[in-house]
Structure formats: C-alpha cells, structure tokens
Specification:
- The structure is a single chain.
- This protein has 408 residues and is α+β, with helices and mostly antiparallel strands.
- The protein has 14 helices and 15 strands.
- The chain has helices at 3-11, 13-17, 55-63, 68-81, 126-136, 144-153, 164-176, 203-217, 222-233, 293-299, 301-310, 315-329, 334-337, 401-404; strands at residues 44-48, 102-108, 113-120, 141-143, 239-245, 251-257, 278-281, 285-291, 342-348, 353-357, 361-363, 366-367, 369-373, 377-381, 383-384.
- The strands form three sheets. An eight-stranded mixed sheet has the order 4-3-2-6-5-1-13-14. It has a five-stranded mixed sheet with strand order 7-8-9-10-15, with helices on one face.
- It is globular and about 60 Å long.
- The N and C termini lie far apart (42 Å).
- 49% of the residues are buried.
Length: 408
C-alpha cells in the first residue's frame, strides 16, 4: 500500500469525488486508440491482471504441447490458492452471512464441451471442479450443496475458505453497512436513488474516519486498513478470467470468482454462466469478463463478443459494441453507470486479442489491465469506452449530446 493511496482514501475523500468531472466523461473513440493487429502470435494466453504472476508456468506448459484448458486452469488456480487475493478461492470475501461462496465455469474448444459450478462452499479450486463436471458427468452445471458433494466425491477436500483477514473485513462491513446492502432496489429499478455524493458533504469523510478506527479495533494491520475500508464502501466483484490458444489454433477459457462481496446467499453472477462470464467457440475465439455480473448477464457479454467476431468484427470492436449495450440499457445515464464497471478479455483464433473496459479503472491509481503472454509476458491497459473512473461517484454528469447518439 503506497502512501499516496492511503492519503487518497483517508484524507482526501471529498477531493476524490471531484475526479472524473463531467468534461472528462465522454465516449472513447476506439479508432483513436491503438488497435490490435489483424492477427497475433500463437501460442498466447490472456487473462485478468491478477493472473499475471502465474503466466510463465502456464505458457511454458502450453508451448510444450499442453492442453489449452489445462493451461488456462494453471493461471486461474494461482489466485484461487492465494489467501491474500480476496477476489477468488481461499480468502475470497464472503456473502452477507460471512460464508464464502464460489463460482466458476470452463469451456474446452477442441472438444466443444463445458462445465460450470455455482454457489459452492468449502471447496477452494472451483475452476477445477467445473472441469470435473465436464469430464465426469452428463451435466454442464451443478450448484450449491450438490456441487459441493460432487466435488468431495471426486476427490476435492473440504476446507474453511474464510481467512482471518477476510473475516475482519466482513465484520467491518457488518458493523457499518447500515441499509446499503444488496436487498435493493437495484440500479435498474425505477425506485433507485443515488447516494449523497456532494463533494462538500462531510458524511463520507466522517465515515472513512470511523471505519478506519473500527478497522484498528478489529486488529487489521495498519498498512491494510485503508484497503479494507475501500472494500467495505465499494464492495468488489472479484474475478479472474483466462483464455489460452495453442500453435494449432485450439482454444479454451475459464472464469472463476468469489462473487460480489457481501452478496445475498445463493446469488450467482456472470462467472458461472456460460455465455456471460466465459464463452469459447473453437471456430472463432474466446472471451471472458470481470466486473458487474448482473449487467453482463443481461447482455450475454462473452457470447455477444464471440458472435460479433464471427460476423467479422475485430476483438476490439466486438468488445466495444458489447460495452455499448450495457450503456444503452441505462440510456447513457451516468448517475447509474458510475456504479457499473466491466472489463472484457478477448482472444481470436488467429491470436489477435483485446482488453476493453467500460471505464478507465476504479480509481486513478487502479486502472484496468489485461495480462498477456505470447512469448513475452506483459500487462497492458485496457481500452476504455468511457473516460473517467467508476468509483468516484460524482454528482450526475451527463454524456454530450453527440455521444448519446451512439447509444440510441
């Protein structure tokens, strides 16, 4: 945690609300951004940035002839095993009752098969469980208690997934969330009202102060308190996607998550939904998503992207078109879209790829990135549709009239 990050969270709340002012909120022109090349390298792996540290091993496996789905699973299993990654697997942030529930799906291009699990408790590597559903059953999806029992039956151990750190963050949320939970109304409900986000208001500053004090009382380490407060006020979605393509043109994808923090028990987002959080077609390519799961389900994001590519769109244009569908669902209303974010990871069968996002990032020092390995491992910023940051929550800016035409 950097000093600037702590200063931003702890002492400059009102100032942060003025970031991304209306004049910076406009549609990004994809043609003005550096497009991906017509074709890329093979083999190649792309994934969410939290898979960056696991790319070397997976790429060596893939380049050595390993199966594309197994390569993708090597990447996503890393964060699942990491207790310090609160977005997936062990240490994932729990539901509103303090229970970790995990979701995952996978698609194997060469055999055109798929597997999925949702709402799984007590099993860490649900990405591997989704593959086991594909390999050992005649089903595509198992959920809840049945998925857990299946996982145990095929050899996965039960274990406590709630780490001490995640438990303390949940306790912090439990103490201060008040009525700001996921019982609704939701963003798409006409009754929804935006919170008071006036920069001159002292409410948020006071809440940050009280949350940091309570974080100290709970024993959260000083260097982790600001991040814990951020996860209480801005509940993270938490996911990793990975797609892998080998030299022969075989392609597979996997997405795994602990879901929306503090969600209602039993909630499923887009990650276990084949066609939303992940979709792979051996003839075309693969796509996956991280971000606002409910919004991605409504546009069948990953499937829409792959179908766009099937009809001739580049990976970049295919992703941008899908993001515009999310914006159209809210008629370009920035009052609501500020509470939405989405990142797509897109890989075409020829090796061309793109990373696109609704916003530039969550905050100025937390921009969206895609991780890539095609013989050279690197992280690249996504191409955003909208300029600005989704967690600033400024007061009701509007898109320029000429930009609004894109979304009608």
């Amino acid at each position: 945690m950097t000093v600037s990050r702590r200063d931003f969270l702890s002492t400059a709340v009102a100032g942060s609300l003025s970031l991304g002012l209306p004049h910076t909120i406009k549609a990004q022109n994809p043609s003005a951004s550096k497009p991906t090349s017509p074709s890329g390298k093979r083999p190649i792996i792309i994934c969410a940035h939290n898979g960056f540290n696991y790319l070397d091993d997976a790429y060596a496996f893939l380049a050595g002839g390993g199966d594309t789905l197994d390569a993708a699973l090597r990447v996503v299993k890393g964060p699942e095993d990491d207790p310090n990654d609160t977005s997936v697997g062990l240490g994932g942030l729990p539901n509103e009752e303090g229970v970790v529930e995990l979701d995952a799906c996978c698609m194997h291009g060469p055999t055109r098969r798929a597997g999925s699990v949702g709402g799984v408790r007590n099993i860490k590597n649900v990405s591997l469980v989704s593959k086991a559903v594909m390999d050992h059953t005649g089903h595509v999806m198992l959920v809840g208690e049945g998925a857990e029992r299946f996982a145990v039956a095929v050899g996965f151990p039960r274990e406590n997934l709630l780490t001490d750190h995640s438990r303390k963050i949940w306790l912090l949320w439990k103490e201060y969330h008040s009525s700001e939970d996921w019982w609704g109304p939701g963003l798409d409900d006409p009754r929804w009202q935006p919170p008071d986000t006036k920069p001159q208001s002292q409410m948020l500053q006071e809440r940050f102060r009280r949350l940091e004090e309570h974080a100290a009382d709970l024993g959260i380490a000083p260097e982790l308190r600001a991040e814990a407060v951020n996860k209480v006020l801005f509940p993270p979605t938490g996911t990793i996607h990975c797609s892998a393509l080998n030299e022969k043109g075989e392609i597979s994808g996997s997405t795994t998550t602990s879901g929306l923090a503090y969600k209602l028990p039993g909630r499923l987002g887009d990650s276990p939904i084949i066609g939303a959080g992940c979709y792979t077609d051996q003839d075309v390519g693969s796509a996956g998503a991280t971000g606002s799961g409910e919004e991605n389900i409504k546009v069948a994001g990953a499937h829409t992207i792959v179908e766009n590519m099937r009809h001739g769109m580049s990976p970049l244009d295919a992703g941008m078109d899908t993001l515009k569908r999310i914006v159209r669902n809210y008629n370009g209303d920035m009052t609501k879209l500020r509470f939405v974010d989405m990142t797509y990871y897109i890989l075409r069968k020829d090796g061309a790829y793109a990373g696109v996002s609704l916003w530039e990032g969550y905050e100025p020092d937390k921009v969206h990135k895609i991780a890539v390995h095609d013989g050279t491992k690197r992280a690249e910023k996504t191409v955003p549709l909208l300029q600005g940051f989704s967690r600033d929550f400024p007061a009701a800016p509007k898109l320029p009239a000429e930009t609004m035409k894109e979304f009608k």
